[in-house]
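Fold it.
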Amino acid sequence: MIRRTCFSVPGLAALCVLLLVAGRIPDRVVPGPPMQPRADAAIAAPQVSEDDSSLQIDLDMDGDYDTSLLQQWVNQIDGQSARLSDAIRTDFDAYRLGVPLNEIPDPWVDFDGSVTVTDTGLRLTIPKNEVSTQITWWLRMIAQAVGILSALAVRISCYAFFSVGAALAGPVCAALGGFTGTMIYQAFVIFVDGKQTDPGEWAKALAAATAVALGATAWEKGLNKFAKEQMRPLYEKFSTWVGNMATTMKSWAGQTALNALDSIKNNLQRFADLVGAAFEDAFNAITRPTDWPADSVKVMVVGDSLSQGAEGDYTWRYRLWQWFAANDVTVDFVGPYSGTKPPQAPSPPTPPPLLGSDSAGTAQNPPPPDSPEGSSGGDASGASGQYAAGVGTFDSDHFAAWGRQIAQDKTLIRQEVATYQPDLVLVALGFNDMGWFASDADGTLDSMKTLVDEARAAKPGIDFALADVPQRSDIGRPDLVTNTTRYDGLLADAVPTWSTAASRVELVDWSTTYQCGTDSCPAGYDGLHPNALGEYQLAHAFEETLHDSYGLGASVPAVPAQVPTRPTPVPSNVTAESSPLGVTATWDPVFGALGYTIRVRAGGAADWNEVQLAANRYDTTWTTDGQQWEYQVRTWNGDARTSDWSATVSATAHPQTAPPPSDIATHGTPTGVDVTWTAPTGPYTDTIDRYGLLVFDDDTAGAYVMTFGVRGTSAHVDDLTPGHHYEIAMNTWNAAGGGIPSGGPSVLVG
């Protein structure tokens, strides 16, 4: 499509050939990393001098630029024609654009000479025997010399704004340099001929040529940033340079040449003011569809915990909805859920699942908040949580759930799309696939492609915005860091190839927009999940793609400098009471609390033991009768936001749990362990329902205690790691709950 458009625009064919062939880029560019500004390659005033044999024009270029690359370009010019003027004309001919007076003006003057790279920049040398005394020759020669030096200087200065190795640098900088050289030459001669040029027409011509040659992907991958932030200062610099040239040539170039240079200086300044907007208009014309539904756009958010949010969150979905509303874009968010994840309900400890059941061997304690996601499910039955106080009624429908993986949603998305018929699907998945070992980077990419294909099977004309995966703070998982980095690169390369004529796929840059990484995570409350700042950032990334690629919304505002502070009061009504388990501490739930921290100590002890909780209840178990326990609680709303501690409360334990079994014996097998025991006798043993068999891997860093429910007096646990040592313990579970455990002999598996 881009090539077809390129060659259908009058006057652009030559530039298209140069960009598409010399730049060696496909219809849909697959560029390298997003562009980052490098050191500015400043351009000083040119110097004109002569000796007995030649005339020299020196262009000093201060700053950081690639001299070896500049030398390659100079060699190409010097080697492509017998005479320097022929090489310059060939270069200018390649950049004839569809603007008035675009033909290379005649008579063209011929001369030989050379362009060389000096220690400080560029030099154009013309032997004295090539110099004519005719004023027309002088004016044309000045125009040609200034043009070719400008082309090279703009091209290398452009490179200085790009990341080293960025794929866009070659075609973009070649176009800017060639166009600028041709423009300056033609503007010079046109002025001498008594005519005028329109800088706005030149800006539109450059933008249109670049847009049809490079396509939408180049714009989204960084050309937009370059056009908005760097083009104006680049051409302002050249406006100043041309003015300086007029000063240095004053003694010998003649008043006509000086007037021409002064006119070009003014036109370049005006061009600098217009070129950024011209680029945005040109790329909007090829990237922004006009076929969105007239009434409203149906949008489905497909995601995990970062998208569903927890009770009390605003969520990035709400911030995106606000952006749509502010831009007068009517949208209909669709999906099977509407709420956030509700807070965990308080409950006593539950007996371990029986050995052989699907959930047997679950951790005795749930993963802490700094585990990959603090969830191992993906069950979205809990989607009834409320939003932050002050969030009014908004269209909150979605298809996002805590713990959700692409591996799960790729089997569900077809039905959801068939049911809700979205026009646009916003997907933010992948962390849990890699975080919970469902797949590596390549497998996660395969799952994402399957999800896209399955959604298209339900609605062929659907469009997508796919977010990459941000890094989280370090949790000792180098595999997660490596896989995330690799996946993001693979996704960026793959997305441009997934679009079809009927169904577009665009990338959303979460990985750099969201301020969260292995070293720090200021936009997340727990090293991963977004706080109020992070919600704005995640929404902002989607807004940029929806605006730049899909034409939705008039503008994308910056992320606010000030964001709401999450209310974090001290928990109230904290109590501690003796219970059949031991002691139970409770308190009133705090709306929007992301969790709680309780600290516990035996009565009279100096040191506290802190425990992170999700619900407003804590049970002290495995305690002896008559032991006093003390408690303090605080609200936890992230690593950097907690309340003060509550006042101390205490209670004395009088547990009604049963004693542990006796005579525990263990025997290692090739892949597991056999355990036998004797049933206990005594108080509270008459209501024993099962035993808890606790297994802990001594040789695995960060291992959790696995707890299996068993009945009878023997059990076999399989699927353990051969060569590892395991600690074994057992306790009883009766009507009151779990009692104090007793240890058995450790065992070597294998």
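Residues 255-287 form the longest helix (33 residues).
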